[in-house]
Design a protein that fits this description.
globular; 23% helix; Lipovitellin-phosvitin complex, beta-sheet shell regions; alpha+beta; single chain; eleven-stranded antiparallel β-sheet
């Protein structure tokens, strides 16, 4: 055999070996992380609460609570469907957790359960998200991204990894406790200061986009998991907290956001294979939070904020107790 032929044979062999290794890696990854098994439907109860307020100034806060049933169906290797049903979105303003339905919350609940969400998972990591083209509301898709992010568990021997989810591309540390029954308790702590590709903040007064500065805000994020012997997730409890301190203060006062999620497995049932959505009806995106960017005028219209401020001045109630107006003022700015 000539030298050229030998080189050709070696190159073909190496290429075949590389393709074989790549295929085996994908198959092994999906086979290893059997969070959702073929021919099964996993149904979870979901409760998420988002709370915004001003720490150190008032006990009043604005809250949104989402309750739902979340189901996961196996489509094919690495591919799954997530569907939200029995969705209820409620809002609360004030010092007490008194929730009520509003026209906007009812519309959001309807939009959340309208379309299923297809996604791919490998080794417990969600590699991409494929919404249907008719999923036009980015806020609805962001909520679904947040729910999916809670189900992301990287199955590897590494304890410090980099993950992409709704918060950004962040460094995550895993703490795993194995039980005699074969089940596992997993604690996942996210270092928010390490996150890249985070959602940029927007302001109508500050006409440019800006990133949060670590010296003026505190943040923490973590999830705790109960995992069955065969890697099925039994329970998830997540909490993420942000405190923005625009002025130096020893009291830790400032605007805060607290996000909590509690997800509990309710049942697993056998189902026939799920029909796939036509690939032309979906588009590919990621778990990263997506802003609804709008063009801003060079001279921002702050008339809404001025109107609300005038109402606050004329209001018989004291400023700290009129939470609804305060929240509207904050949103306007």
């Amino acid at each position: 055999m000539s030298y050229d032929k030998k080189i050709t044979v070696i190159l073909v062999f190496l290429l075949a070996l590389e393709v074989s290794s790549y295929s085996f890696g994908n198959q092994g990854g999906c086979k290893k992380a059997k969070i959702f098994r073929k021919g099964r439907r996993y149904e979870y109860s979901y409760l998420g609460v988002v709370e915004n307020g001003v720490k150190g100034a008032s006990e009043n806060a604005a809250r949104m609570r989402i309750s739902a049933r979340v189901t996961f169906d196996y489509i094919s290797r690495c591919q799954y469907f997530m569907q939200l049903t029995q969705v209820k979105v409620e809002e609360s303003f004030g010092a007490r957790d008194v929730y009520r339905l509003t026209p906007s919350s009812v519309a959001s609940a309807s939009a959340l359960k309208e379309h299923p969400l297809r996604f791919e998972m490998d080794h417990g990591i969600i590699t991409d998200v494929r919404p249907v083209l008719r999923e036009r509301r980015k806020d609805v898709l962001n909520i679904k991204r947040g729910i999916l992010s809670a189900f992301q568990l990287k199955w590897s021997r590494e304890r410090i990894v980099t993950e992409t989810d709704v918060s950004g591309v962040c460094s995550v540390r895993y703490y795993v406790t194995r039980h005699q029954s074969g089940a596992k308790s997993v604690k996942k702590v996210k270092d928010l200061s390490s996150c890249e590709k985070r959602a940029l903040a927007h302001s109508n007064i500050e006409t440019i986009q800006y990133k949060p500065v670590s010296s003026i805000y505190d943040a923490s994020s973590g999830c705790e998991y109960e995992v069955r012997k065969k890697n099925a997730i039994e329970k998830v409890v997540c909490n993420e907290y942000y405190l923005v301190r625009p002025f130096s203060t020893p009291y830790g006062a400032g605007s805060y956001t607290n996000i909590s999620q509690v997800i509990i497995l309710q049942k697993v049932q056998r189902i026939p294979p799920r029909k796939q959505i036509n690939s032309q009806e979906v588009y590919r995106t990621s778990l990263l939070y997506e802003h609804n960017h709008e063009e801003k005028s060079k001279s921002p219209d702050i008339s809404k904020a001025v109107t609300v401020l005038q109402k606050l001045v004329q209001s018989k109630k004291k400023f700290p107790t009129d939470c609804k107006l305060c929240c509207r003022t904050y949103i306007c700015f």
